[in-house]
Each structure stands twice: as structure tokens, then as C-alpha cells.
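Q: Start with the shorter request: fold the first protein.
A: Done. Sequence, then structure:
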Amino acid sequence: MIDFNIDNYLRISLTDVVLVCISTFLIVMFAKKFFWDKLLTLIQKRQDLIQENINSSVAIKKQAEDVKEKYDEKLRNVSQEAHTILVSARAHADQEKQQIIKEANDEALRIKKNANEDIERQKRDAQKEMKKAISDVALSAASQLIKKEMDEKTQKQFVEDFIEQAGDKQW
């Protein structure tokens, strides 16, 4: 078996401990005399830089919050403006719709009126043509009858009576 003793490995003695403490004290005193001020200055500069960065970060954060608040307000205003525009557009569209419907109705009435006038004119023209055709037929029939049986005065009276009767009936 192996005999293990920690004292063989550590070999801690009182003189070693005292020498290490003295050498550490001397190193600290030497560092304090030559390097401590520079080290404190360096640490203070670093601390100031960090504090400056923190302060600027806080300021930037505040600015960002202000900008965000402004944009949120603008966004709310944009929503309201969009709603207003939509309402206005709907009202305008309804107004245009009513105007188009009115114009279409007016146009339909005008077309209907023109069609009725055309029908009446064509009806009158057809009646005139019919009267003329009836008169021509009557005159032709009357002339043939007169040639056979009547004199000229009786023939005219017969034609006038026939035309008068045809005019009263108005086909």
C-alpha cells in the first residue's frame, strides 16, 4: 500500500507563511507607491465613462419614449382621419348615387315622353294616310257610281258626307 501524507506535498511552515505575507505587503506598498494613483485614475475614468453611457442611455430612452408617444398620437389621429375620410367618401358616393339615379330617371322620363310623342305623331300620320286612302277609294267609288247614275252636284255632296263621317269616327 501507498503511504500518503499531505504534509509531504504541502510543506507549509510558519516561516513560509510569514515570508509570503511580507512579500505581498511589499508588493502592495510598491504598487501603491508607483501604480496605485494611475490605477485609481484609470478606474475613475472607466467609472465616469460607464456612468456617462448610462446617463446617455437614459436620455436616449426618454427621447425614444417621447418619439413613440408622438407616433402613437399620430397613429390615433391617422385612424380618426381615415374614419373621417371613409365617412366622407361614403357620403360622397351616396350623393353621386342619388344624382345618377335622378339623372337616369329624368332620362327615362324624357325617353318615355319622346316615345309617346312619336307614337302620337305616327298615329296622326297614320290617321291622315288612312283618311287620304279612304278618300281616294271613296272618290274612285263615287266617280264610278256617278258615271253610272249621278250628276256632278250629287257626287260632291256624297263625297263630302262620306269624308265627314270618316272624320267623325277617327280610326
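Q: Next, the second protein, separately.
A: Sequence, then structure:
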Amino acid sequence: MNARKMSEPTLAPAPKRTTVERKSDREVVVTRLFNAPARLVFQAWTQADLFQRWWVPKSMGMTLLSCEMDVRVGGQYRLVFSYQGSEAAFFGTYQEVTPNSRLVWTNEESPDGPITTVTFEEKDGKTWVVMHELHPSKEALDAAGTGASEALVETFGQLDELLLTLS
């Protein structure tokens, strides 16, 4: 190697901010590193007043009409959305709640709803969030499509913006 090349800084490509990967016929995993401590990120996922400020992608033209969250094992959540003049409710039950670390909930609005697991891992004041959805079958995941998962790219960006105001 010549001396000039050895002294030049090596720039690694910037990692994608949010990744959405289909891990198997039944699984989708969404990941993102947030520049905030786990306690703040967890609060944004578990406090209704914060959650409703970031969860709905602005570009979709949807409105979150109500957000009820009883974040404890056995507690339930219910989200009601309005879109193009109609309403839809999403609801389920929290199966695991480990503060600042892990949430697991069911999606009960359909018999084919996935189980969602979100983990929060903090290192050096930043939090790695991994959202894992496990569908009951390949057909259920195929029916859900990639649109909802891809909307999470925008949604996680909105969470990032909210966290800046909380820090």
C-alpha cells in the first residue's frame, strides 16, 4: 500500500436508520438505534399521551382518535384510527412488561394477528430497539403485507423526533 492511502480516513457506509426484514415465512423484524436512554424510549411506547404523538405515520392521512393503554401483564390496549371516513380498532393484551427492557403483546383484532415483541437495549445512552412480529402462519403475514412494516420506517423516524423533545 502506498503511504497516502494509509493516512486517509476510512469512512464506513452509514448504517440504515431503520431496517425492516422478513426473517422467515412468519416473522418480520424492525430495528433502529435511538439517541436516547432506554427509559425515555420505553416511556414513549407505554404512555398513551406520548405514544399517540408518534405512532401514526403522518404521510398516511390517518388520525389516531383514541389511545388506551394499561401497560401491565394482563392489561389491554385499544387504538382507534380514522381513515378516509371510516374507523378501525386495534387491540390486544400485554403478555410481558419489563420496564425499560421488553414488551410483548397480542394483536387480537383478527384471529391471524401476530404476537409483537419489542426489546430496548441501552448502551452509552443510546437505545437499540428491536420490534419482532410473529404471525401464526405464512398466509397471515402475506395478508398483512409489507406496507404496515414499511410504515414503521416513517413511524420510527417520528419517534426519533419526539425523543429529541424529551431528552
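Q: Describe the second briefly.
A: The mean pLDDT is 87. Strands lie at 18-22, 27-34, 63-69, 76-83, 86-98, 102-106, 115-123, 126-134.
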